Amino acid sequence: MEIPDFLKAVTLEAVTIVSTIQIAYVAWQLLKKWMARTAMTRTLKAKFEKTLRVHKRHIAFYPIFLVLLWTSGLFYSKELAPVLGVVHILAWPMYSCGQSKTVWHFLGFYMVMVSILLLSLTGTLGLLHVILNPYIDINHFASIFVYLGAYRVAALHSKEEDEYFTMNSDDGDLENQAELEEKTRLINQVLELQHTLEDLSARVDGVKEENLKLKSENQVLGQYIENLMSASSVFQTTDTRNKRSK
């Protein structure tokens, strides 16, 4: 069952709100700890300062995370982006607070990096698709790949057929002959599909050329109408001046 679009948008908003609450809570806890005038040993103070630096980097990087999250969600996938956002939200406490256990610290770091890299990659792919789609026909490229695949299949079948004739030139078995006829029929179907794809690509190119011609003709016609209107206004102005002078 397909998820409705409004639920997909709600998941993005929910991840954004949860991450905002998380960063606000961490900032508040650090502020309280920093304002509290409690005596700490040198080891505890070093750990606290290290954790504080990590959270400062987290707060500074948070706007970039939001941009990547919403770019990936809006332009690539509204299902994958919230999942990566949740991974990022869960990984930051492991990275920042796992100072006592090195395993948790590095696991959180790698999870943060993977989530950020995947969000960047998916967001970039989505933006490229949106930007390049009006200028590059993605379906036309897909038909080209299908054509190349069909050509490769036909070449492989032709090579197998040549090997078959070379190795079994003296064999008159009816079963092998039936297999050869079946392969020949498949090759003919592939070639017909190849010709059909070529015709479709030629028709698409013809339609594009006709659209370009129509656009240019419309532009010329619009310019001609503008010239007529300007000439008519000049003529009316001149006529009015002549009447006034008389």
Automatic annotation (TrEMBL):
Bilayer-spanning residue ranges: 6-28, 59-76, 110-132
GO cellular component: cytosol; Golgi membrane
Domain of life: Eukaryota
Coiled-coil regions listed: 183-217
Source organism per UniProt: Coilia grayii
Keywords of the record: Coiled coil, Cytoplasm, Golgi apparatus, Membrane, Transmembrane, Transmembrane helix
Subcellular location: Cytoplasm, Cytosol; Golgi apparatus membrane; Golgi apparatus, trans-Golgi network
Lineage of source species: Eukaryota, Metazoa, Chordata, Craniata, Vertebrata
Pfam families registered for this protein in UniProt: DUF2205 (PF10224)
Protein family (similarity comment): Belongs to the SCOC family.
Physiological role: Positive regulator of amino acid starvation-induced autophagy.
Main location group: cytoplasm
Membrane topology label: Peripheral membrane protein
Protein name in the entry: Uncharacterized protein
